[in-house]
C-alpha cells in the first residue's frame, strides 16, 4: 500500500513533470509548428472518416443521415460472407497481394545494394533518376503506357513478337496475363522510389567497418554480404512488416484501369468491388461493410507479421 509520504511525493512530482514537458515544448516549438499540418491531415482525412464506419451496421440513407438511418447489425456482413462474391474476392486479393509482396519487395533492396557498389557518379545518378521517374507519374499515366505497350495492333511488345514470326497477343484480355502485368508494372513504378529508404539506411552504416574488412582482405561481395546487408536488415524487417500489413489493401485505381469483364475472374478484388457497390450502385452500407472487413484482415496480418518478426529476429514495429 502507498504511504502518505509516497502520495505526497507523487503529487509533488506532477508540477515538475508538467514544467519539464512545457520546457521541452517551448524549446522545440518550431518543430511542433512544422508538425501541425501533418497532424491536421491525419485528424481530418484519417481519423475523421472513421465516424462513417457506422453505416456498415445500418441501412444508410442519404436523406436520413448516418444517425437516423436504422440499425441492422451484421446484416451486410452476413450477406457478403454468404454470397458468391466472397470466396472469389478473397482469393483474388490474397493471391495478387501475396505475389506482389514476394516479387516486388526484393527489387528495391537489390537496386539499392547494386547502386551502392557503383563508383561512377554520373552513371549512378542517371540510373537513380531513371528509376525514380515512374513514381512521380500518376496511376492513369502508368496504366495508359502499359495499355499502349501491350496493344495487339501497334504495341511495342507485340511488334517484337511479330518480328519473331509469332501471332500478336491480346495480353489485357487474357486471364493468365493479368497478374504478371500488374506485378511487373508495380515493380517498374515503385522500385526506384522505395530504394531511397534502403540507400539512406546504407548511408548510416559506419564506414570504419568497411575499412576494417578491407584490411582483413574482404572483397566487395563479402563486404556487401556481411556488412551492408546486415546493416540494413532492421530497415528491411520494418518495411516487410508494413508491406505485409498492406498486402490486402490493393488500390482500386490500377486494377480498375487494367481489368475488363474478361479478366474479372482473376482481377476483381475487394477495393474494386467496394468501388462498384458503393459509387456505381450507391449501396453504401454494403460497400462499407466489405471495406471494413478488408481493413480488419489487413490489421490482423500486420499484427501477425510483427509477432513472427519479433519471435524470429527480435525486431518489429513495436
TrEMBL record:
- Which residue windows are transmembrane per the record? 31-57, 94-115, 127-147, 227-244, 287-308
Q: Which InterPro entries match?
A: MetI-like, MetI-like_sf, UgpAE/MalFG_permease
- Species of provenance: Thermobacillus composti (strain DSM 18247 / JCM 13945 / KWC4)
Cited Gene3D superfamilies = MetI-like (1.10.3720.10)
UniProt domain ABC transmembrane type-1: residue ranges: 90-305
Q: Which UniProt keywords apply?
A: Cell membrane, Membrane, Transmembrane, Transmembrane helix, Transport
Please give the name of this protein. Answer: ABC-type polysaccharide transport system, permease component
The record's section on Pfam families has: BPD_transp_1
Q: Which domain of life is it from?
A: Bacteria
Give the family from UniProt: Belongs to the binding-protein-dependent transport system permease family.
Q: Which residues form a coiled coil?
A: none
Which compartments does it reside in? Cell membrane
Its cellular-component GO annotations read: plasma membrane
* A single GO BP: transmembrane transport
Give membrane topology per the record: Multi-pass membrane protein
Q: Report the principal subcellular site.
A: membrane
PROSITE patterns cross-referenced by the UniProt entry: ABC_TM1
